[in-house]
Amino acid sequence: MTLSAYREVILSSKSDDEAAILAIFRDVFARETNPSISLLNIYKELPICNNATIFDFRGKNVEFKATPLQVAAIANSTETIVQAPFFNMSVIGRLVYLDLPHQLVCLGNFSYAEVLIDKRNTVRVKLRIPLNINLHADDKTVPGVVRDISLGGCSLTTLLGSNLETAEDLSLHIKIMHEGKVVEIDVPAKMVRIGPGPPHECALTFQHTSESERILSVFIYQRQLEIIRELREKS
Fold first, then answer.
1. What is the distance between the alpha carbons of residues 206 and 98, in angstroms, rounded to a whole number?
2. Host H or E run for residue 30
3. pLDDT for 71-115, tens place per residue?
């Protein structure tokens, strides 16, 4: 799980919050046959979310029956986000152990969390190979590297962030694979944030043309399939 995917929230104290979370798990397990629970992980910026069930308790730890894909995602990040209607907010569970033959994950050290990934409007994916791009800023051309992207925008690293601060007209010139061949597209963009540097970490939102939106949609969807396939191979 990336650090930006959630923010830990302490309502009372770490120990009191954990005790309250465990009490709710035990109460729900005793009263409901199959309570609605989902586990959420972020793998290469892609949300992996599947249903799970409470299997058993081991002291302060809880065993969950999960899907093979989710087990692989949890093994990769060593934690997961538990979301259920009987909690008033999300819960972080840290991995204690895996029982792969039975697809069980044992979680412990619970705490509450605000899930920041929920605030994204579009799905972001981490690129297998970072994209070298040119950012046209008014009359300047600024080289940069894109490591993750969504249909709504991207993060970009550049050594020349000072050239972008006052630019009014921005567009990214990107070369990507589309339908088996390399295509070049210009994506109009707006700067959201420029970090200190160099190198400067920048965040941009896209203001698509119909062509750039169509091509990037296919590109991002194909990358989602690659990420899911890679994770399945680990399960």
1. 41
2. helix 14-31
3. 999 999 999 999 999 998 999 999 999 999 999 999 999 999 988
